[in-house]
Specification:
The protein is built from twelve helices and no strands. The protein has 223 residues and is mainly alpha-helical.
């Protein structure tokens, strides 16, 4: 199936050509890539369970009116876990200078993988390979894992990407850096679709919560 066929399947029309980076094509490419990666993530352990489908819908919010089209492509993509590499390269190629977006995708894939209560070897291998194709460093991979799964030492530190012994000033600087990188307005300016903005909103809430938890732990005056 070629890209245009998939776009038509999703009910997305090709945008007119322009000199602004083809934001419409970026939206289509991101949507197609994320649906395929999510479906194949659910398939990699052998069976696609309803809880995994629900995890996909919960994390990657589908725009109203597109539910049937997205479900149709999800069902096509879930038939085989193979071929995910090309979709991962597609998504990575859309955002070579925005690793925070790719990190958010990995977080969503972690949510799907653990939806049935465990992450098996095949799922862990899938996540690692997608992250490698994305070019994500281990720090971002671990932060995505912590955001999706929790249960790590100093979870707020992992979310903010800081050492547990970081100074108060370093904590605040890391928080501001993460807020700027994940702010929905910045992502909208890059032409991301609604489902990506919804993911960014949840990530921003997680970042703010991590910062608040660290401030409370240290007895800091609210900023």
């Amino acid at each position: 199936m070629n890209g245009l066929g998939i776009a038509e399947l999703l009910g997305l029309s090709s945008p007119p050509a322009d000199d602004g980076g083809h934001p419409g094509l970026r939206q289509i490419g991101f949507t197609i890539g994320v649906i395929a990666l999510g479906a194949k993530m659910a398939r990699v352990d052998g069976q696609v369970s309803e809880v995994e489908r629900a995890a996909f819908r919960d994390f990657f919010e589908v725009p109203p009116g597109e539910e049937a089209n997205v479900e149709r492509f999800f069902d096509l993509a879930k038939r085989d876990a193979g071929g995910f590499e090309s979709y991962a390269r597609q998504v990575a190629g859309l955002f070579p200078d925005a690793p925070e977006i790719l990190e958010n995708v990995i977080e969503g894939l972690f949510s799907i993988a653990q939806a049935d209560g465990k992450i098996d070897v095949a799922e862990a291998d899938y996540l690692a390979k997608v992250a490698s194709i994305f070019g994500l460093p281990s720090s971002r991979f671990e932060r995505a894992r912590a955001a999706a799964l929790g249960a790590v030492e100093c979870e707020p530190c992992v979310v903010l990407g800081i050492d547990p012994l970081a100074t108060d000033e370093q904590i605040r600087a890391a928080w501001l850096r993460q807020v700027r990188a994940n702010h929905p307005d910045r992502l909208m300016a890059q032409g991301l679709p609604e489902e990506a903005i919804a993911v960014a909103n949840r990530k921003l809430a997680l970042i703010n919560d991590a910062y608040d938890r660290l401030r409370r732990q240290r007895g800091l005056v609210p900023a």
